[in-house]
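Troubleshooting log. The previous run stalled partway through. Resubmitting the same two chains, unchanged.
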Amino acid sequence: EAGVTQSPTHLIKTRGQQATLRCSPISGHTSVYWYQQALGLGLQFLLWYDEGEERNRGNFPPRFSGRQFPNYSSELNVNALELEDSALYLCASSYGAKNIQYFGAGTRLSVL
Amino acid sequence: KNEVEQSPQNLTAQEGEFITINCSYSVGISALHWLQQHPGGGIVSLFMLSSGKKKHGRLIATINIQEKHSSLHITASHPRDSAVYICAVVTGTASKLTFGTGTRLQVTL
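Second attempt completed without errors. Output:
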């Protein structure tokens, strides 16, 4: 069974551009979570989607947004990119809320 | 002060040693995760527990809800255990994880 898959693996953008990151959860999982791990910093919670709706968001500006599709896959969009948005973005999925989360390999976003 | 504190920050051990990583938290939680992050960045979920003890192979995780403390033990450590181990807690009704800063473990031959 396939795990959580994220694409692309690496993404290079320039300041002011938009980035779109994608995540496919494990089959049967309805919850998708997005996390940011900036260089030298710990993991921080970004967004949680469940059954197609945004359920919670972390302390990030509105230019970080996303959605969850009917097949439970998810997109994370980052608008007006800033240099400090350079980070590893991790997606996780779980079967419903409050269950163990399984992580993807991440998308490394570099903003130049 | 962080809601989730881990100790030690860095740990070097020789192959075969018994290793303990500690996690303390200051908030009420519904569950606690132990995660393993390898140098490439990928994260593996090791355990999720809300009480007692869980064991998987050479890994053992315990939690004491009253003391707000959890430990991850690795028996007979091996160089392939070298990674960053991260404790994360689930708080309130949200399912988001709040992470500790991680413990960097290096196991040498």
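Takeaways: Chain A has a mean pLDDT of 93. The radius of gyration of chain A is 13 Å.
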